[in-house]
Amino acid sequence: MKFNADLHIHGRFSAATSADMNFPNLARGAEQKGVQMVATGDCLHPVWRKEIKEMEEVDEGTYQVGNTKFFLTTEVEAEKRIHHLLMFPSISSVEDFIERLGNSEKLKSDGRPRLRLPGEDLAEKAFDSGAMLGPAHAFTPWTGMYAHYDSLKECYGNLASKVCYLELGLSANTDYGDEISELANITFLTNSDAHSPQPVRIGREFNTIEAKDITFKELAMAIQRKKGRKFVRNIGLPPEEGKYNRSACSRCYAQYDLERALALRWKCVCGGSIKKGVRERARELGTGKVNHPDHRPEYFYMIPLGEIIAKAVGHSSPFTGKVNGLWQALVDKAGTELDVLEKTPIEDIDKIAGETIASAILAFREGKIKVIPGGGGKYGSILLPGQEAPATKSSQKSGQKNLFDY
User: Fold this and answer.
1) Does a structural domain hold residue 245?
2) Which of 240, 271, 292 is the last residue before a domain boundary?
3) Tens digit of pLDDT for each residue in 240-293?
4) Which single residue of 58, 261, 357, 364 has CA 20 to 30 Å from 79?
5) Whole-prediction pTM value?
């Protein structure tokens, strides 16, 4: 069987997250999106962990609310502010890890705790507790592993060989990762890192997995590519939509090519700091050639339906009442957001939401939506056919496959 899984989210106890992040809302949002398995996130936090335990455990380490399965994860910030994604096989494994941390008071204050451990020490405690561990949004400035280290070994020391996955992050895709030779045997994850259960956030990136059941045990085998279990698709935003794709000023968001940024010593003409983009960092680390290993699934672009609707109706935000109403009407008819984007007949979309939105969804299916790249902490934006980019920006069309070329 195949199922869709979003393997990195946060609960409401992490900084800058929505108060609506609870398991019923997450289950509902995932089901409407078309995602069957979701990370719990924040499982080290005592209150969130209590709520996890209140869910029905349908298999060891696998919980269920409605039609959505959950499994135990957390993101932690360690030395150099680097973020790591941990996955646990059971509550007892989580509690063993907490004991190895010394029951730190920091676990009570933030769902994504700051542990200040070196990467190798964190990995040792995680592996000794039975957990899996890998870099979260590995290329992201400030908190990505590759923002501070040139290799997995520099970060995780002698335990680097036990790292079996790496999260690409919203500003990267598999082409970026597969320029780096040390990642050839690593499974790439594409996840939402959602801080809100809104449909434009939950499942904005996810993975399609082939396994025998929707359980943590099957997921772990797929990550490790054992017994025929495997990842068959990585689905995510065009990397240009990510807010760190291009090198740009973190104050005014002016974008710079690498040579100009170096000449300015990473200081913008406005006085702000230029943050190196994911694209540039991946190129620095890479060989100059993309080499996809045989096990690597293809990467398919997906733009959230709310963004497409908002752009079609001329709204600056996908969170308006009108956009939400149109989104809900389409999902109610089709079953899931993925169904709307992928296979609902265009004439049916026209009847429900009108010709403008139907044309926008058709443009997405045909790969005709352009992206204005983001950088410096500002998300990129999309342009529908016939729409013009702002004079100070440049847009580009990606040549990588769309979700519906699959």
Assistant:
1) no
2) 240
3) 999 999 999 999 999 999 999 999 999 999 999 999 999 999 999 999 999 999
4) 261
5) 0.94
Looking at the fold, whether 186 and 312 belong to one and the same domain comes out as no
- List Cα–Cα distances, 241 to 35, 168, 404, in angstroms: 21, 14, 19
Distance CA 220, CA 211 (A): 10
Write out the H or E segment, with its range, that includes residue 85. strand 83-88
- Residues 194 and 192: their CA atoms lie apart, in Å, by 5
* CA–CA gap between residue 79 and residue 347 (Å, rounded): 54
Q: Which residue has the tokens 């729409």?
A: 387
What span, in angstroms and rounded, lies between the C-alpha atoms of 36 and 68?
Answer: 5
Which three-class secondary structure string do you get for 127-191? HHCCCEEEECCCCCCCCCHHHHCCCHHHHHHHHHHHCCEEECCCCCCHHHHCCCHHHCCCEEECC
Q: Is the same domain home to 203 and 331? A: no
Contact 44, 50 (CB under 8 A): no
Instruction: Give Cα 373 to chain centroid, integer Å.
Output: 17
- pLDDT for 152-209, tens place per residue? 999 999 999 999 999 999 999 999 999 999 999 999 999 999 999 988 999 999 999 9
Question: Greatest CA span in the chain, whole angstroms?
Answer: 60
Any residues with CB less than 8 A from the CB of 95 and at least 6 apart, and which?
A: none
Distance CA 146, CA 98 (A): 26
Total tally of structural domains belonging to the chain: 2
